[in-house]
Amino acid sequence: MQDSNQHHDAHKVDPGKPRNGYEWLSTIAIFFLLLLTLIIGTGEMIHGQLLRVGEQIYGDPDTGIQYSFLRAAPEKPSCERNIDIDAAVQQQMAANQSDEFADFFGVASEEDVRNSIIAGQASCVEKHNFYDQIVTHIDEHPSVRTYRAFETTFFGIFKFGTEYRALLLMLMVAIASIITTFNIHHIGLRAPSTKIDFKVYGVAMVIANLFLTSACIFQYNSAMNAGVEVATKMQIIYWLWIGLFSLLTLISLYKLVKPPVPTQEGGSIGLALLSVPLYAYMAISTGANFTFLMNYPMGQAIYLGQLIEFSNIFLSLSLFIWVGMLLKRTRVVDLFLNILRPWNFAPETLTWLILLAAALPTAYTGASGIFVIAAGAIIYREVWNAGGRRQYAIAAAAMSGSMGVVLRPCLLIVVIASLNKEVTTDLLYHYGVYVFLLTSTLFLIISLILAKEKFRIASPAVAFPNSAKALVPVSPYIVIAVAVWAFYKFVLDTNLNEFTAQVIMPIILLAMVLFDSLRKAPEPQPATGHWDESLQDYEHANAPTHEPREQIGFFKSVSYATFETIGHIGALIMLMALSVSVGGYLERIEVMSIMPTDLSSIVMALTMLAILMIFVGMVMDPFGAVILISATVAPVAYSYGIEPVHFWMIALISFELGYVSPPVALNQLLARQSIGDAEVADADAEVRHLSFYYRFERWLLPLMVMFPAMLIVTFIPYLLKLFGWYQ
To answer: Most buried pick, 257, 299, 449, 598, via CB within 10 A?
Structure first.
């Protein structure tokens, strides 16, 4: 995921900072859309508390006045408080006599009419008294007008956002996609750098967006000519899709005609094809198949509708991406590593500890790739500084976002449970802990087997005091997180869990960014020198340099994080949308029909399902993969007698294996984006003279960990159950 405009000047320009007017405008727009998403997410709990507070402050149990009666200006009753009862009775009697249906229904007696009028008058007096009581109460508590204006305004925003959640997502994705396309920021196997790269990239993007524009136009015409009235909201969504892809086509055409300045000479068609974004490959392949082979030209647009159908999930994912970029703007990861640095652990031990710690933020940022983007560069640098091989450090960065996806409150588990009633989040999280322990232990064992130096640790007498000192700077962030959690827990009566993490975590990170911006102490850069075996003293080997970072305020930090969020929303969510389209294509060609239905061996079924899901993980993002697997593979697996929880543990571990496996290896791509192409090229250059394993360690090590883990998760539970050792 690279912005080619920045390749030649990366050392001068922070790619996370808006650089011109339209980028600043888009940043402001996305910020307010994310803020509105937060309001929607917390709206129900906050509004409930506003009503409760309003009742406590302005309600009066003695007189029966409730805050609900005060939420709007009282309306004076239209009936007359004081009337002449006798005259009203005579008037009603005369009216009854002239009623043409009186003979049929009978004429009410004068006594009945009088009783009815008296009862109505009593009700009228009661209404007037209640009205006077409310007016008096408001006059005695004039602040209620201000409070109800705030409460009802908040409710109006919350209600509007809830009703138009899909449009909110569409606007966010549209703005982000435009910026991402203009900045050439889509995810590809390599970044375009030569003249031919940009030509091939541009042609592919034009064709891809033309297919998508055509599909959306076909869908719109089909819907409008179906003879069924189309809701206004859906018409707006159709227009937005058509407008978006038409504009993306024009932008891609402009970039083809006026490409960025190449950063390298030469190039070849083969390398240029690797520069084409995965988004374009998916759009072209599904568009061509739907249009020319299936005669279903609207197919892509139909499956893009999944983005709208699951708008809650994708809005949550947008918030989690924002969390990751806000985390990147804090010192939390650096300060945590300061606790480990004094011990001078061997690279393998340090990496294992880092991966254990990274599992929690991975779970709380919703999906593996987000944490890799946010912290991959820091993890890479720290492992390398500790003496780890660069290739090993890149592998660690790629895996840093993999192990936590099975832990609470990861959004991916919530999606699985929402699409599959056979499993619950509690069950998946429970068994996910065992999968996490398995993968992390395998990583440590394999790393130690391959390590030249099995164990290294500084003297506890030296390391412990330094490590204890490092706890002090971390403590304010812990206090901030606990304080925000306590506010939600005790004030809003909402706990931090898989259903609320997407709205609570941004508040925690915003508070941390605010704290960082208010700090006056200098922010030292982490260690930049490689660990030298001749230096056994922490103070010399791993001490950070004290060149202060640029001090920026809260609003700039948030704006920079939001601008980075735009690129990742545009790249990741559009990739996910096209992944759903790929899944839809595979579903329509009935890919599961290749699976035999009369398998006598469950081992064979497990093997075939695992292979299929590894392949899905190689070519699709996690959310698109879950949607596809839920609709096609899961029912087949259940029919083979595979337990649903076991099946989804296999799916998750197979997906994670796929995310670090060629040809796509999404986590490797994101790690490269975080670390930088130049650093990865240096890592490759320094091992060209070494053996096969060390030349490709960043690819092989994750496979050596995740493949055995996949085999264990797939077959061991079945064998345990077969021999009666587990029920």
So the answer is: 299
Residue 18 to residues 23, 175, 271, 323, 554, Cα–Cα distance (Å): 5, 14, 30, 18, 15
Closest to 174 (Cα-Cα) out of 105, 248, 104, 285: 248
- For residues 256 and 206, the answer to whether their CB atoms sit within 8 Å is yes
**Cβ(670)–Cβ(1) under 8 Å?**
yes
SS3 annotation, 544-575? CCCCCCCCCCHHHHHHHHHHHHHHHHHHHHHH
User: Cis peptide before 708, with omega less than 30 degrees from 0?
Assistant: no
* Burial of residue 234, with CB atoms counted within 10 A of its CB: 0-12 exposed, 13-18 middle, 19 or more buried: middle
* Cα–Cα nearest to 27, from 560, 513, 568, 555: 560
378-408 pLDDT per residue, tens: 889 888 888 889 999 999 999 987 788 888 8
Contact 48, 332 (CB under 8 A): no
pTM: 0.82
Q: Any idea which residue has 């490590």 for tokens?
A: 467
Distances (CA, A) of 187 to 275, 349, 456, 502, 683: 9, 32, 39, 24, 21
| Structure token digits, residue 176 | 């982000």
Contact 374, 509 (CB under 8 A): no
Residue 304: closest CA among 616, 620, 579: 579
Distance CA 214, CA 287 (A): 9
For 424-435, the pLDDT digits (tens) are: 999 999 999 999
Residue 177 pairs in a beta bridge with none
Largest CA distance in the chain: 116
Span 89-112, mean pLDDT?
69
Q: Helix 501-518 and helix 21-58: axis angle, to 10°?
A: 110
Residue 57: Cβ within 10 Å count: 12
